[in-house]
Amino acid sequence: MSRKPVPAQSGDRSRVEVTFDKPQLLPQLFGEFDSNLLMLEERLGVYIHARGQRVVIEGGTEAVAHAREVLQELHSRVIRGEEVDGGLIDAVIAMSSEPMFTGIVRAEPTNGGPKPSIMIRTRKKTIVPRSVTQTHYMRELASNDLIFALGPAGTGKTYLAVAQAVAQLITGSVQRLILSRPAVEAGERLGFLPGDMKEKVDPYLRPIYDALYDCLPAEQVERRIASGEIEIAPIAFMRGRTLADAFVILDEAQNTTPMQMKMFLTRFGQNSRMVICGDPNQTDLPGGPSASGLNDAVNRLEGVEGISMVRFGVGDVVRHPIVGRIVAAYEGEG
């Protein structure tokens, strides 16, 4: 960076120097024209000067310590193959402010060996959490059989569930992926639409397809759909079935009726895992949230053994920062 750092002063100010290995990765860490370092300066109120493999951070004592921690975590992410962008920088800053950050995202020794970081590996990418709640959610996905993921759009509820489902399909721990959601609002009245059933339903399942194609090569997605390993269907198609040896995801669950939700939950079979994703505040049902099968199920099943409830908030939105501000405005939080 061309600007000379401000000298440390007496009082609550400090100056630290960090040296990074793997110099070939530093352009990704620093960003074009040091844009990532400039963002850290703005977010954390410090001055950062980079020369070669050395970075000097100056400012208030707590801010400098925070900046060093964030920079070191970002460096670890680059080593793991992640791309540093504004969203990741904001997520790491937010996570580093939480006491549970240390030892959950980073590896730490356990009985003389490394403790693996929280991540989901698929054919195309390795996915790591971008918020504290995502860290908790990914732990639940790896350990519990029935999970309700609740919260606003953009928090990664469906995306992470699909990634975990793909990872388990790849390893053989499940034999099928069954991905479902209510089609047209809650009534699923598809008859007036042109085309066969697949053509009628596909537009409403597009977000699930997008997540699949992000985790698997396109040819594998098509092949696995053709073979029945991956099934994508509206919730009405689940009636009368028992879903064994499967990873089952219900998206947009707030648009189910209580009877649809009961029907879906009771499809649960042996060696299966089920994730219910939805925003309790965004139902399209006539009658609003009180008519939602998702809200009814949460009220009935909260605290039931073996069922996990993960709640995302506005601060967990990992899309463009403006999405979080939009959600907050609509929910009266900002």
From TrEMBL:
It is found in: Cytoplasm. Belongs to the PhoH family. Residues 127-331 form the PhoH-like protein domain. This is PhoH-like protein. PANTHER family: PHOH-LIKE PROTEIN (PTHR30473:SF1), PROTEIN PHOH (PTHR30473). Pfam families: PhoH. Its main location: cytoplasm. Keywords: ATP-binding, Cytoplasm, Nucleotide-binding. It comes from Sphingomonas trueperi. InterPro entries: P-loop_NTPase, PhoH, PhoH2-like. It comes from the Bacteria. One of its GO terms (molecular function) is ATP binding. GO terms for cellular component: cytosol.
